[in-house]
Structure formats: structure tokens, C-alpha cells
Amino acid sequence: MGIATSNQPFKQRVKEAESDQFMRTAIAKAQDAQFVKRTASRRELGHWNEWRDLAEQIRQHVLKYLPDYLEEFAGNVEQQGGHVFFAQTEDEAHQIIKELAIAKKAKNIVKSKSMVTTEIDLDKILLSIPGVNLLESDLAEFILQEDNWDEPAHIVFPTLGKNRDQIQKEFQKLGYDGDNDPQHEARFVRGYLRKYFMNADFGITGCNFAIADNGMINLDTNEGNADLTMAIPKTQVVVMGMERIVPSMKEAEVLDNMLARSAVGQKLTTYCTFTGKQKAGEVDGPEDFWVVIVDDGRSKALGTEFEPILQCIRCGACMNVCPVYRQIGGKAYGSIYPGPLGEVLSPILGGYEQFQELPYACSLCAACTETCPVKIPLQHLIREHRIVEMDDKHMDHSMTNLILKMVGVGTGSPFLFDSALAMAHPGTKLFTDGGPNSVEPMYDGGKIDYVPKAAPKLIHGWIDTRDVPRPPKAKNNFRHWYKHHQPVEPAPIVKKEGGQADE
After folding, report:
1. Which of these three, 284, 300, 316, is where a domain ends?
2. In-domain check, residue 392
3. Mapped to the 3 state alphabet, what secondary structure does 246-305 carry?
4. Res 339: pLDDT
């Protein structure tokens, strides 16, 4: 799949998303439910903003000394008999993991949910190996796999837009003959996945946090699929973004708490695991342990104004409060990283040409920044992307700049501005509904509800998405009132006892 999930234009994806009423209802319901759970779990912890400050400090400290912590982590993994590879690009990651799977003669590969493996399109690469079978062990990811590798709608709840009937049809392909009751569907797929787990000879997981001072991997799941992926296969590959590291268990404990409470409103995920290569005397765990640390464009953000996005712990809280995401859902973004996170991260990893529209899928309301457990200033980073696109890369080839220059000339000249005010009311008559258009009219003079198709994109972009009132008559506007306004005599100054004056 890769970071890009669609080749359709952004506006087309948005229109399709707006027509999917079930998806929009499901997202609204999920956002509301998660708000209640998230708020309750944060209040239970207490001093939430102080915890956010601490989490931010941890993540910023790691980014400041990232090379040192990566080196320390790699050394500890290798000291315990594991292997570490650094992949600068997704192609390098592909080559390392593919060659390893071939060398190990892997037949049944099991994969737990991982955003970075989806980002580098690892499933497609592994399935190109003759004789290899691959299964996504996370229930939601498994459903997407069975549905012809459908796009995820959320980084925490990938199947948010699917209903039980759709899931029933996918399971029927596997031999399910039951009804659409979620419990019955889950019972069936649980048995199906267990059989595959027991036959898996090659396991792949992501990594929530890598512990620098002991070389262990921290995994957080609610289904236990990552634990099974680590415990049964003899060969284990951990794929992690290079920024997903913490100095010690002490910092991991803090971030695990922040992650669980922000992602699903729990004190801690059901399965919070610290693991690595199988040690002497242990009966499960991988005998052959590999860690692939992926850059894939992340280093481009280091030392720039976009560095704070690398603080992200992938909790998805920003999506759960975003009003734009609520209306268009995850698929409309065309990236595996939707919502405010995707608006910042996708142009960095995938380039502006591919994701230039995403920074504009935002109202700059700052709800995402307010809820972020590691205090990423998301709305500022989104705005910075707009500045880069417009001022540095000059990516807007429409008439927008010309129109704004003309507006500047008009507003800078008193004569032209006064003329525009005088003509505004009669000039918009052709583009106005002419009167009330609802039971309780918002605008006495009507609203501008259409413009010619030949009008510039800037005008259409404004009128088509907003209620714009018709300008008032010249005699009713503020400038006319101010010009003819008679000042009121100021009240006399009255002295109080003590010598102070009161007007």
C-alpha cells in the first residue's frame, strides 16, 4: 500500500467520503465515545498537563540525542545475540527483510499491526516471494487484508467505516456460515487466526518504543496478537521508525501511560510487553532476532521547524477530536496517516507534490494540539506547510495571487475602495438568492449562493463552502454610519472623596 493509499484527486475522495453516511455516523459516534473515555482516564491519572509536559520533555530529549540513543540500543541488542540494520530508504528495508525471509525459507509469515510496515508497503514485497503466505494478525488489519487490502480509516481503529454485514461477507470467503453478530464473527476469526499462528515460522512486528539501555522492544496491543507474533515463530523481525526510542524503562512507563489513555481511554493496554531475543531457559520467543530501524524521510524533519512531529507516539488522539476528520473520514486523506498527524507527516515522508492538499484540510482550530499527549503544536506545523507550499515552492499556479494583488490595490486606494462599496450591493444581485432561503433567515438581503463556472478557483472555493451574505447597501454600511455619526458629549468628570476622578 505504501504511505499513499489512493491515486484519486483529493476533492474526489472528499466527495466520496461525504456520501458515505454510515462512515460519517460511525466516526462521529467513535469520536464522542472516545472523548468520554479519554477524559475519564486522564482525570483519574490527575495532573494531566504536568504529565504532558514530562512526555514532551522525554520526546524532545530523545530527538536531541537520537544518534546516541540509537547507537546504545543497537549495541545492547547485538550484545544479546540480536541483529540490527539501519535502512535509510524503504527500498533498503525491503531488501533486508526480503533477503532474510528467503534465507530462512519462510513459508507462513505472521504480522502484527504496524504503521511503519504499512508505510513501506512491506506486505506487497513479501508476497512477491514464491511460496510465501502472509497474514495480518490484528483483527482490523486482517479484515482489510481479506477485503482486497482495503485502506485503513484510522491508525488505531482501521476498520472504523465498516459495518458488521460487510465483515460478515469477508468472513464468508473463509468458510464462515454464521450471522452478523460481532461475537459470533469474532469467535470464528479467533479460531482461524490461531491455526495460522501455530504454523507461522516468521514473525514481524512494529515497535511502540525501543528501550535504549537494555535493547528490549516495548509492544502495546489490546488483542495479544503482537505477543503471539513474538512468541511462536523462530525468526522475528522488528521494524521500527528511527524516532521510536526511549532512554530507559522509566521513560517507557510514562509514555505507555500517555499512549493508552490517549488512544483508547484505558489505564494501560491489555497487553503491554517488553521483549527481545529468547534467552537461555525460556520456552518461547524468537531464536533469531532482527531489528530494522527505518528512516524513510524522517531525518529530513530533524533540525527543522517540523521536528516536533517526530515526537508523535501514534495514539490517534488528534484524529479523535478533529472536526474535518469527523466529516470526511480517514480515506479521504489518501494517506495511511490521516487527520492532523497525516497533514503534517505525509508531505514530509511522501513529498509536497503528492500531498499538497492535506495542509488545507484543516480549520486551524488547535483541538489536536490541545489533546496531544506529547504537546506537538500541530496547527502551527500545518500552517508552516502552507507557507512552504505558497512562499517557498510557489505551488499555487492558479489566479489566486493575481486576485489578491488586485484586492490589495483596491483596498489601498480610497477612491477604488469607496467605489467598490457603492457597487457591492447592486453588483452581487445576479449571484444572490434575493431573499430569505430558510424559515429563520440568517441574512436580510439574502446570501451569495452561486458564481459563474468561469470564476477563479479562489472565489469558488470560498462561495461553495461558506454562507456569504450579500453586502449591505452603501447607505447602510459602517463607513457611511461613521461618516455621519454625531459624537456624544462626554460625561462630566466627578471627583470622589479621596481625590480620585471618575468619568
Report:
1. 300
2. no
3. ECCHHHHHHHHHHHHHHHCCCCCCCEEEEECCCCCCCCCCCCEEEEEEECCCHHHCCCCC
4. 96
Taking each continuous run of H as one helix and of E as one strand, the counts in the chain are 21, 14
Within 8 A by CB and 6+ apart from 117, the residues are: 111, 123, 204, 206, 239
Tens digits of residue pLDDT in 159-194: 988 999 999 999 999 999 999 999 999 999 989 998
What CATH number is associated with residue 105? 3.40.50.10420
Report d(CA 499, CA 503) in Å as an integer: 13
Number of domains in the chain: 2
**Residue 63 reports pLDDT greater than 60:** yes
In this structure, are 296 and 435 located in the same domain? no
Range with the poorest average pLDDT among 194-198, 223-227, 341-345, 496-500: 496-500
Give the global pTM. 0.85
Q: What secondary structure does DSSP assign to 354-393, as a single string? A: HHTTGGGS-----HHHHH-TT---HHHHHHHHHHIIIIIS
**Span 416-437, average pLDDT:** 80
Residue written as grid cell 500545518? 382
Parent domain of 439: 429-484
Tens of pLDDT, residues 413-424: 999 998 988 898
Q: What sign for the dihedral angle of Cα 8, 11, 12, 18?
A: positive
Inside any domain, residue 146 = yes
228 occurs within a structural domain = yes
